[in-house]
C-alpha cells in the first residue's frame, strides 16, 4: 500500500492490529456460544433426549424473534416458539 504521508502510515499500522483483535474476539465469542447459524435445534441434548438449555439457545431464540419481525407472514411464528416438539430441518 502506498501512503501519502507518515501520519497515514502510522494510523494504519496502529489500527490494523486493533481491528484484527476485535475480529478475533468476535470469532472466539461466537464459537464459545456455539452460534453457528439460525436454527430451531437445541444445542445440548442428554442421553434420554431431554433438552439442556444453554445461553446459545436463548440467544438463538432472540435472534429468531428479531429476524421474524422483518418477515411478512409472521402470524404463526409464536406458535413455533411455543411448540413442545422442535421442528426438524434435516428432513
From TrEMBL:
Keywords: Acetylation, Chlorophyll, Chloroplast, Chromophore, Electron transport, Iron, Magnesium, Membrane, Metal-binding, Oxidoreductase, Phosphoprotein, Photosynthesis, Photosystem II, Plastid, Transmembrane, Transmembrane helix, Transport. It is a multi-pass membrane protein. The chain crosses the membrane at residues 12-33. GO terms for molecular function: chlorophyll binding; metal ion binding; oxidoreductase activity. Its main location: membrane. One of its GO terms (cellular component) is chloroplast thylakoid membrane. It is found in: Membrane. InterPro entries: D1/D2, Photo_II_D1/D2_sf, Photo_RC_L/M. GO terms for biological process: photosynthetic electron transport in photosystem II. Belongs to the reaction center PufL/M/PsbA/D family. This is Photosystem II protein D1. It comes from Gentiana tongolensis.
